[in-house]
Amino acid sequence: MALKFYNSLTKKKEIFTPLHEGRVTLYVCGPTVYDHPHIGHAKSYVSFDVIVRYLRYLGYKVRYVQNITDVGHLTDNADTGEDKIVKRAQREHVEPAELVEIYTRSYFEDMDALNNVRPDISPRATAHIPEQIELLEKLIEKGYAYVSHGSVYFEVQKFKEYGKLSGRKQEELDAGARIEINPEKRNPSDFALWKRAEPGHIMRWKSPWGEGFPGWHLECSAMSMKYLGQTIDIHGGGLENIFPHHECEIAQSEAANNQPFVRYWIHNNMVTVNGQKMGKSLGNFITLKDAFKKYRPLTVRFFILTTHYRSPLDFSNEALDAADKGLERLYNTIQHLRERLAYAQDGSTPPHLYERLEHYKKAFIEAMDEDINTSDAIAVLFDVSKEVNTLLNSGEEIGKKCLEDIHALYQQLGGDILGIIPDVLESEQKGETDTLKNIMGMLIDTRCELRKAKQWQLSDFIRNKLLEVGITLEDKPDGTVWRKIK
RNA sequence: GGCGGCAUCGCCAAGUGGACUAAGGCCACGGUUUGCAAAACCGUUAUCCUGGGUUCGAAUCCCAGUGCCGCCUCCA
């Protein structure tokens, strides 16, 4: 068994081996913080979060870097648009720095809600201007970049391997169906490394070529080199960034360093909404904050993971509702397990229990090894639940140790690796619990007496009323349990 | 126009040459359990877009067709 990744560069699944044994360097293209994060961000970052979690589970020491783009991302790729940050700051009448702060916080807030582990380093482009300038100087010195009217461009023709990731041919690029001719460039496909700041442009830094600001592609090269070295193990990002962003990163980095930039390129697929591409211009944009009003963040996470990261994900209410119910099913089992655990005693081990647990664990790991097949991995969790439910309902005494070990399996696979099983379920949440628990205890005791006396009308009345306030009762052979529902 | 991807049960979605008489979830129906429920369990539901081909053997490979989608503007 070995972990395999589909490498976009070679277009093949490959067994993963890190450059340095036991350590993995991972860079994922982070957000441009000019708006609230949307469900597309969620798919991308949940996907890579699970990859990071799994690598760590396998025992690798992972350094996970994910940038925050706070300058240089233009509104189009022809190097002629406005800076997104500047544009949006003007619209919202705030300082660019303020805007960046607002949306960076919003970003982390939503990622935290999705239970993504924070990157080890979240470097900002504006905090790495010297590193970027240094890289530029190196590229100019080596003849890959040229200065033109205070801007610096990368001369694509000089880098023979340009196109190796995206499959674009040099000639096609120059034919440039939609690239506007920029007279400052030697060739239409050359891309900006550094842009001259026009008078009145707010975000500007001093450079050997006058005041300006860095191009979007440059930051990722500079920052990944700084924190992860000249060759990194994994670079991740959305499919749509293969061209031009990642192609440009390769060109800059490899031209500067004369060695491979990335060993495994991993790209996640896109989100559609009701079968349609999600885009700003189409107006079918769903922010996470909006999605969370309707669905729990972990439902969104679970939903994302039911599809493979390289497949497109269609976001629809029906699909989310189905995911939510499925997740609820998993949670029910876990809650019952935890309740049972609370009063379990030492006792016997059900026959073959440990063989079964081992079997499921193995199946789960095999799924994850196969290019992070979370869909299969989740199916394994449902298989486990089926068996555990049967066991819990069997009426047999189960030793505490066994219950703990079952629970540990869930925590490891569903909790640590997939991040869909929290330590405390919503239905178990504290807060008002002490009071609530007491009141519920009273109600359940009362109702229990009523049921003994076959006062069905009254006992059903209590149950229905509780349901109205979002609490469901389940009468089990060994007593009544309650839980909050959504 | 160039490049790439996808098409599997009512819906979502794994599987990419042989344990597939195709996983898992949702929905539906029947049953067990229950005072009735809930939860849970059991059962029922597909030959894999179409047509050719390769192979002892294909959902899985090749060719053609049809349909959908993405990138080359915005966007993870």
UniProtKB/TrEMBL annotation:
The entry's keywords: Aminoacyl-tRNA synthetase, ATP-binding, Cytoplasm, Ligase, Metal-binding, Nucleotide-binding, Protein biosynthesis, Zinc
One biological process term in Gene Ontology: cysteinyl-tRNA aminoacylation
Catalytic activity: tRNA(Cys) + L-cysteine + ATP = L-cysteinyl-tRNA(Cys) + AMP + diphosphate
Binding annotation for Zn(2+): 29, 220, 245, 249
Subcellular location(s) per record: Cytoplasm
Needed co-factor(s): Zn(2+)
Main subcellular location: cytoplasm
Motif 'HIGH' region per UniProt: ranges: 31-41
Enzyme kind, highest EC tier: ligase
Sequence motif 'KMSKS' region, location on chain: 277-281
Highest taxon, organism lineage: Bacteria
Pfam families per the UniProt record, alphabetical: DALR_2, tRNA-synt_1e
Any Gene Ontology CC annotation: cytosol
Signal peptide (residue range): none
EC id: 6.1.1.16
Cofactor note: Binds 1 zinc ion per subunit.
Alphabetized PANTHER family for the sequence: CYSTEINE--TRNA LIGASE, CYTOPLASMIC, CYSTEINYL-TRNA SYNTHETASE
Family: Belongs to the class-I aminoacyl-tRNA synthetase family.
Identification of the protein by name: Cysteine--tRNA ligase
Organism classification: Bacteria, Pseudomonadati, Planctomycetota, Candidatus Brocadiia, Candidatus Brocadiales
